[in-house]
Amino acid sequence: MPFWFNGYELDEGTIELRLGGEPVPIEPQVFDVLRYLVDNRDRVVPKTELLDAVWGDQFVSESALTTCIKQARQAVGDNGRDQRVIKTSHGKGYRFIAVVAVDRAAPASETVTEAAPSDDDDELSAVAVPPHRPALRVPLMGREADVSVIKRRIADRRLVTLVGMGGIGKTHLLRHLDHALAADYDGGSVLVELAPLRSGDALGPALVDLVPGADTSTGDPIEVFLGWLKPRRCLLLLDNAEHVASDAADLCRQVMDRCPGVDLVVTSRVGLGLAGESIHPVGPLELDVAVSLFVERAFDGGADLDPDQPELRTLCRKLDGVPLAIEIVAARAPLLSVADLTANLERHLAASHPAEDARHHTLAATLRWSLDDLGSRERRVLEEFTAFAGSFDLAAADAVASVDDVTDSLLDLCRRSLVVPGPQNETSRFRLLEPVRLFAAESTEADEPSAAGAARLRHAEYYRDLAARADRWISSHALDRGMVTMTLEWPNIRAAFHTFASDQNVDAMTELVVATGSYASARLTVEVFRWAERTYELVQRTGVAPSPELLAILAGSGANVVELERVNQLMAAVDPTHPSPHVRQARIVQDWYQGRMDSVIHLLDRALEEHNGEGGYWESTFLVLRILPAFGPDRRSPDLLDRLEALAATDGMSGALFAQVGRGVRLAWLGRPDLATVELDQAVATAEAFGAAGMAQVLHSLRSSTHQETGEQDRAAEVLAEWIERAVVSGGWSMAAESLGWAAIVLTDGGRADVAAQIMAARRAAGYRYHQQYEERLESQINDALEPADRAERVELGGRLGLVAAVELALDELKDLATTS
Description:
- This protein is α/β, with parallel strands linked by helices.
- Helix content is about 60%, strand content about 5%.
- A hairpin with a 3-residue loop joins β6 and β7 (about 95).
């Protein structure tokens, strides 16, 4: 659901912040912070709650949140002084204070509610309820925009069919349409309940019963009904037409032809297929509305839940906005905690619900009715689609389904609202609502476990191969395409890995880890490192020889969490001449963090020679790493910049990134760090928008060094602190630890050599070494600034400090230097 404020649009569907329709580049954590604050804009959100909501179980310091808040303010044109969007409540937390518009599609004047709203509904406007209809007990929630759109559809077409899966709320919406629209017709409205009818033959008698004083002894009852209806100006509503669809369609056709003053609204799980019919899909509720509905139904049963509880929002996400599912589970909230309801969701969805229609007594009964109405081919396809996690495209559907040409079956499932269309970019996307997926998957496992396993295996193999293709794109000039594909398909790639892991398929697990390694390196995705660990454990148990690339990715994981001894052990088992970029990257990291810079430069030169002209993630990464130690006057190479600017010819966001980096470095080498900083600032923003978190962190070090060269100690300290915090937030402790060397230089130049001595000692104790040139410079400066006894004391303290504490100490001192210089 989009939110608008101060000219910005925060779109949960596309996960974008836009200004004037153009995306504003922000990191995923910054978007999550903004969204959470907007979702909870009626209160101050405590810092601990924000940390839990955005980072979950991952350990991050409060300074990481401070950085995210700062970036969020910058993204929406706010600042810490004026605080027009995000207000700091000192000692408590943050609150979103800008005025937010939730839905631009439904003007306030068209909002529909009950005639006599309760005190809780005072923000909604009311319209009169027709006197022949009793007031509705349950208010309309989250469907106001639907009412507005349906009114326009009726004016254009006369016949509107509300289509959606069972339990999605079609009948509830129809009742509110009856109240909202009946007053517009001289003859009011006529509501026909079709659910009780066992067959189409019962339609005529049911209709004629609505005609006052009708003589049913002679004549066709439908003709009697049409004769009574013809002179009237009224609204005819037919509820639950799917099981008598053919007869209902014939009735609607005759009403359209013979009763010009009558408009029709029908609810059905499928359209009627009539000329002039306007289909209005009734989809899931938005998350905020789903939470409100859950809280209200739980309150009806005696439970008073906090709508801001993060666990409740997680539960409602799993219920996927299906009202019947929400009501069934919420009815158990007075007896069970939200955590218990979430943990055993499938069992609770099978609970009963006191619906008037027997088909809705349980969600399982509702979905069973829908599945029983499917042909054998469509049911088989739906059950095979339960292998998907998240959305999928037509090619994936065709690969997973066991039938030839799945398109017609897929479209039929969409018409029945069992599969729903998702956001479309270059290709159409589809997904199953989570309650549908859970029920269909359970049915498949019970009826045909082998068929379910075969579909999951086809799914896993398809996404393993897709990940391998995307990995090749990431290593080529199609870098943008590869990154976008990996991001879009990540839920299915994750599901594929778990399928292979459950089958203990070591080879397939390894292939998928290797295929996602470049993406994980670019985005600092720690999840792939966990996959690598799980694969390696299985390799050791089974006695299979580990892949050199698997060992290299594990070594990268070890460096990421500061386990340099393990890095050395793993890389000792890898052939140093192995041509894989993963192996070369691991060797570079191994040498870089242990101060062997000459070896790093040699490895980088060889890598660049072999990757010449390929473009993509690896060549660009090796190139930027090669440029980093070339900032000394005796190491600068115009050839490096020429190669970087050649990559800038790549189309898309990656080309723009390389161009900005190239210009920034060239300006820095030309002695214009002020202009270089502007270019590097833009490069950081592009890298973050592109999802290249690793590149963004490297660029932060370049930004800091340009400020250092101009004597801007405060800005150098500020940028470096920001970089270290980003490394910690992403779980990249190795980057944070490596950056302590540069932090020591900045702090020493800023008059804080005592702290520099301490953090450098902690860094050495963890196994890190800096480039010899900088180590010698630091030692000399620290020795000049400190008395021998003081220096010895600081070194001893640093040796006992530990790396995490050293990072925290450096952050505090850098921030203090940034504000006091």
